[in-house]
């Protein structure tokens, strides 16, 4: 039998990666040597000390039961300690920090806690897709904030339509940014906080890439902006920082009433993170300092090879200061889709067409430096020989 999908599912924006997914599968099946720069998933293994902590924890039967409510206090305290050390901000582990089954889960769920049908959420375009789907599932409307090169891929808050703004209750921001690899400074974060206060908005700051930064740049937390705790929640993830995407662990921090709303939704949907994984997460956060430099160094080397290679063949990209992405403007005769197709068909390289992240991503493709140096060099060589 074929069952009719719900209206909320039908309202999702079209999935634009279908064609590239199909072409990728076909090329693989034909035995092509594909270089996959399409996925935002670290290729490096989780650090050995984290795996060791998990193996120990998993043998302790006290980790085998439900981890309800706020999860293990020790994980929340470790998160608070890390936040304090990293950003200089204090959070009360009882009420201002909440564990998440990966930050995507919290990001997708938060509109359910605060958005009523007819209310709106400000969402960057292009963006990480759960901002859109979470809003739609809650019955909310989306007000897009275009990100453009002209504005350094920061939303222009002053340009947001005032007739729509009265419906808005929430704004998503994401710096360092996926997919554009843009960064923001503290002034921008202060502007967002002030804007949110003026218009009674909840700020959802997605900080998944806060630790993948280069050239000495350090990404700020929104809580370094004065008054942020009145209006903001920030989503942190162990996924990219510790190569732990498959483990599903992250946390939210911020305004206690925002955290409480998210917690109310979650307590009706999930039953927490496996305690053994929370223990491994504590070990990860406690050992952040000795781990992070080696990760940054590897992505920095890859970025240099990719960016220099692309620039040398006239595909101009700015050297990103953060994330493992490179946001490449497609040559004039192409669209996002046709350039991604050409890369795949003529170079056996997978890249993500920018328009899949939103209308304003058209004209770009995203390349992820999640393969090793040798493969990145090979990718650059292939593009130079076969496309440029
Ligand atoms: C990878 C990613 C996340 C989070 O991932 P989790 O594994 O769910 O913690 C969040 N936001 C952005 C923009 C990402 O790219």
**Highest CATH level, the class of the largest domain:** Alpha Beta
Number of domains: 2
Rg result: 21 Å
Instruction: Report on the biggest sheet.
Output: 7 strands, mixed
Distance between the termini: 49 Å
**How would you describe the shape?**
globular
CATH topology of the largest domain: Aspartate Aminotransferase, domain 2
CATH level 4 superfamily of the largest domain:
Type I PLP-dependent aspartate aminotransferase-like (Major domain)
Question: Would you kindly provide a written description of the structure presented here, covering whatever features stand out?
Answer:
The mean pLDDT is 96. Strand 3, helix 6 and strand 4 form a beta-alpha-beta unit. The strands form three sheets. The protein has a seven-stranded mixed sheet with strand order 2-8-7-6-5-3-4, with helices on both faces. Helix 2 packs parallel to helix 12, helix 3 packs antiparallel against helix 10 and helix 5 packs across helix 9. The chain folds into two domains: 134 residues, Alpha-Beta Complex (Aspartate Aminotransferase, domain 1); 242 residues, Type I PLP-dependent aspartate aminotransferase-like (Major domain) (Aspartate Aminotransferase, domain 2, 3-Layer(aba) Sandwich). It is globular. The chain has 388 residues and is α/β, with parallel strands linked by helices. It contains 13 helices and twelve strands. It binds pyridoxal-5'-phosphate. Pyridoxal-5'-phosphate binds next to helix 5.
